[in-house]
Amino acid sequence: MNATATASDHAHPHDPNCIFCKIVAGQIPSKKVYEDEDIFAFHDISPWAPVHFLMVPKAHIPSMAQVGPEHERLLGRIMTLAPRLAAEQGCNPYPDGGFRIVVNTGSEGGQEVHHLHVHVMGGPRPWLKG
After folding, report:
1. Distance, CA of 107 to CA of 130 (rounded, Å)
2. What backbone torsions phi and psi does residue 15 show, to the nearest 5 degrees?
3. Which of the following is catalytic: 52, 60, 114, 117?
4. HEC secondary structure over the chain
């Protein structure tokens, strides 16, 4: 592991057993959409819509249930970045086009991977889900 990755690990707590932490670290391949110091976005491996990617914080936050005031800037950046990435990935413009943003939280909320992730889905309907 190079010095950059090690520095990133210290800046972003991770769970060695988490599939999304492994994707962020480059240990599991993904089709990257976007990356900066705090956020990693990649295509969903089982898309529900013509455009379907996930935006995850690099830090391991299990779900929205663990989000606190210290995450306000991070979540704001995810939400303000989503429209730009949606357009870049092929979502049609608002108002006739658009996209959905979905955050599943906990088992009853449909969360399967316990690392906070924001689904961004769009493209012509009908979709498989949603």
Report:
1. 18
2. -110, 115
3. 117
4. CCHHHHHHHHHCCCCCCCHHHHHHCCCCCCCEEEECCCEEEEECCCCCCCEEEEEEECCCCCCHHHCCHHHHHHHHHHHHHHHHHHHHCCCCCCCCCCEEEECCCCHHHCCCCCCCCEEEEECCCCCCCC
End-to-end distance of the chain based on CA atoms, in angstroms?
40
Q: How far apart are CA 14 and CA 8, in angstroms?
A: 10
| Token pair for 73 | 């800037």
The residue among 117, 23, 104 whose CA lies nearest residue 78 is 117
Per-residue tokens: 119: 């689904």
Per residue in 42-99, pLDDT (tens digit) is 999 999 999 999 999 999 999 999 999 999 999 999 999 999 999 999 999 999 999 9
Clarify whether 117 is annotated catalytic: yes
How far apart are the C-alpha atoms of 33 and 55, rounded to whole Å?
9
